[in-house]
Predict the structure.
Amino acid sequence: MMKRREFLQKSSLASSLFFVPSFIKAFENLPHNISGFKKLVVIQLSGGNDGLNTIVPYTNDIYYKNRPGISISKNNVIKITDELGFHKELAPLKNLYDKGYLSIINNVGYPNPNRSHFRSSDIWYTASKSSEFLNTGWLGRYIEKYGKIPHSGIEIDDSLSLIMKGHNMNGIATRNPRVLFANTQTPYFKKVLNYQSDEHLSEHNLGYLYKTMIEAKSSSKYIYETSKTYKSTFEYPNNPFGKQLKTTAEFINSRIDTKVYYVSMGGFDTHANQSIRQNRLLKTYSNSIEVFVNDLIENDTFKDTLILTFSEFGRRVKQNAAGGTDHGAANNVFIIGENLKKKGFYNLAPDLLHLDNNGDLIYTVDFREIYATILENWLQVNDASVLSNSFNKLDFI
Amino acid sequence: MKERHIKHLYWRAGFGVDINEFKKIKKFPKSKILKNLFRSSKNSVDIDIDLSEFSSFKNKTPRQLRKELGESVYRKLRQKSQGKVRDLSYAWIDKLTFSDELLREKMTLFWANVFVCRDNQIFHIQQFNNTLRRNALGDFRTFVKEIAREPSMSKYLNNNQNRKKSPNENFARELMELFTLGVGHYTEQDIKESARAFTGWSFKIDGTFFLRKKLHDYGEKTFFGKKGNFDGDDIIDIILEQRQCAKFICTKIYKYFINPDINEKYLEEITNVFYRNYDIRNLMYYIFRSDWFYNDENIGVKIKSPIELLTGIRKVVPVTFNRKRQLSYLQRMMGQVLLYPENVSGWKGGKSWIDSNTLMFRLKLASLILNDAVINLEEKGAFEDSFEAYYKRTKKNNKFIKTTKNWDLFNAKYERISSKELMDFLLITNLDEDTEELLDGLEVKSNRNFCIQLMSVPEYQLC
C-alpha cells in the first residue's frame, strides 16, 4: 500500500482534509444536532462566598449579634420563608426562584473541612476526602470515561483547572475559540501535525504527546467552527463574568456536543470591607445568570441544562475586625434548571447555635452527594464510576 | 561511553549537556565522566537575595515591629517582603540555568517536590530552599531531621501548633505519608504517638530551632512496636529503620531520574543500596554507574517538567527576562510555579503536565522566549484577588515575552556544528518517523533557526 504521504505528494488534491488522521475524522463527522443530551454548567464563586450574607437568616438573633457591622438588615432582605431570604442584589435570582428554576441546598460541605483556598478547592475539584490527595477532577474523570474527547468538557478560561483533568484525557480550556484555534495554527504546530499520521502512535509518552496534539487541534477546530454559527443577541452585563456566561451560552446554543462546562468567577475572598464588595459581586452574578438562563430558554436549551454554583468554603459566622469575614466551612449551593424535583429550599436553614471549634457552620449535606445525584440522575452515568465511591442520592432532580 | 549515553546522563543529572563540556569529556571513560559530574556538584552555594531592607524581621517579633513602626507601615513592609518570595523563585530559576553544580541543582529541584513546602516569610523560605540544596547529595537521615526543624515546614504543617496538651498530627502524618513511607505503611496509632514526640518543636525569630520544653511531651511513646521516651529525632531514626522508607524514596528517584515506568528488579537493587546507609550521593552514583541506566527503554522517555523545559532552553541559548514577572506567567501557564506548590503532595509529574492547553503552550515556548512570538492567553486570577484584579489581566491582548537572548554565545558554541549534530544535542528521544522526515526535509538556513524549530517539536518535550 502506498504511504499516505506519498499519495499526497502525488496527488494534486492535497486539501487539508486529507491530513486529518482517520480516528479524528471519525468524531468530526458526527452529527452535531444530537439535541436532548444533558449539559452541566459548574460555576465556582472563587475565594469563598459568604453564604450567610447571600441567603440571609434574617430572623436569627445570633446572626445579627455576630455581625454587628456587616449583617444584612431585615429591610434589605427579599424575604422568602420565616427564616431565610435573599440578599437584595439577588432579585434576578429570586425571579428564577419564583419560576421554580432554583433549588438552594444549605449547609453543604465535608468532614474535617480545610480552610485553605487551594486545598479546599482541590477537594471540591477532585471529590476527594479531606485527607486524600487526588490528581484528577470529577469532571475530568467524567470526560475521560464518558466524553472520550477533550471538548466534551470546556473550561471558560485560558488554562485548565484540576476539576477538568482526567488520567489520560482532559477537558479543554478556552475563553475565546478563535484564539484557541489560532494557537493550533502556528507554523511548527501545523507543520508537525500535517505530517503526522496516527498509524504508529505508541502508548508511551511520545505517542501521548502526539495524540494530545491531534486532539487539541481537532477539538479547537471543532469548537471554533461550530460555535461561530451562533452569536448571542442577548445583552449580558458588561463584565468578564457576563462575558464568560455569554461564551458558554454561545457554545450551548450552537449545539456543540459539549456536556460539561466550568466557569470560575473571582473576587469572593472578602476579608475586609465586605459589604460593598459582596453587593457588587452578587449583583454581577445574579444579573448575568438571569440573562444566561433567558438566552438558553429562548433557544430551547434550558430544559437540557443544569447549572451548579458552589464556593470552596463559606465564611466564619462571626465577622472580623476589618469589616469582613474569614474562611469558614459549610456553605449553600445553588442548583438551577427547568425541571427540578425539589424547588426552593432543599433543606433546613443553617444551625447557628451549634458551630464547630472554629466557629464555622457544620455541614449536613456532603458535596459529593450532590455530585453523585447529578451524575446519576442528570448525566445518567454510574456515579461510583466517577467518584469511586457510591454516595447517597438527593432528590433535587 | 557512547555519545548518546553521555547525553542521556546529562539530561537526567542536569538539563542537557553543554557542548563545550561534551567535547571535553566525550573521550573519557565512564568512571572519569562520573567523577567529573559529581566533583562539579561538590559545593553547595546558597541563594542569598538582597533582603537588607527587612533585616529587622530577623531579630524583632511582629509585635515589636508593630509597636515601633505602627500598624500600617509594618503591614506595607511585610507585604513587600512577601513579594520577595517571587524574587527568590526567579533567583532559583536563574541558578538552575547558570549554576555549575548541575547535579546538585537538579537534585534540589527533585527534593523540593518530596519535602513540599510553602511559606511567604521570605527569610524562612530562603533558608528552607538552601537546606534542600545543602542536603541534596548528603545523608538522608540528617536531611529529614533538618527539614523537621525548618520554620517554614513547621508552619506549613502546623507543627508550631503541636503541643503536649493538644497535639497537632499534621506534620507527623505527612512526614510518614508523603516524606518517608507512603500511605498504608503505618497505623493511625503511629501517627498519634509520633505527633507527641514532635510537640514543642519550634523556632526562634531568627529561624533557628528551639524546643519549647513546657510544651514538649517527655512521656513514653509506642512507635512501630518500640517503646521509649522518644523525641522527634528518635521517631525519624525508627522510620528509617523500615526498609519501606528506602523503597519509598527510591521509587521517587526511579521515576524522576530513571524511568516513569518502574522495573521492579532495578528498584529492588537501588533500594538495597540506599537502605545500607541512606547516602544520597552514593545512591545516585550507583544509578549512573549501572549499565541498565543506559538501556534504550530509559532514554528519552520522561516528560520534562515546565521548569526542566524552560531551563533546558536557556542552557542552550542564554536568555534573561527583562520583566521578571513574565517568568511567573510562563510558569503559571504551564502549571508549575516554583515555591508555590498547590498542596503538600507536590506535583505529580509525567503525563499530568500535559493537557491540550499546556501542550500548545509548551510547544510554543521556544518561539516565545527566543523568537519574539506573540501570545494571547492569560493566566488565571488568584483566590485572594478582588473581582477587578481577578480579571484585570484580560485587557491586553497580544503580548511579547520580553527577553534578552545571547545569540552570540549560542553561535560561538553551535553555529559550526552540523544540523544533525545539533539535532542530537537537543533531541534525545527516538524521533517519530513522520517528524523525522519533516525535519530531514527542512532547509536549514542557520543553526539558530533550526534550534528554535527543534525545540518546537514534541520530541523536545521529552528527555
User: Anything to note?
Assistant: Residues 306-461 of chain B form one domain. The mean pLDDT of chain B is 95. Strands of chain B lie at 201-203, 209-211, 221-223, 226-228, 319-321, 374-375, 399-400, 403-405.
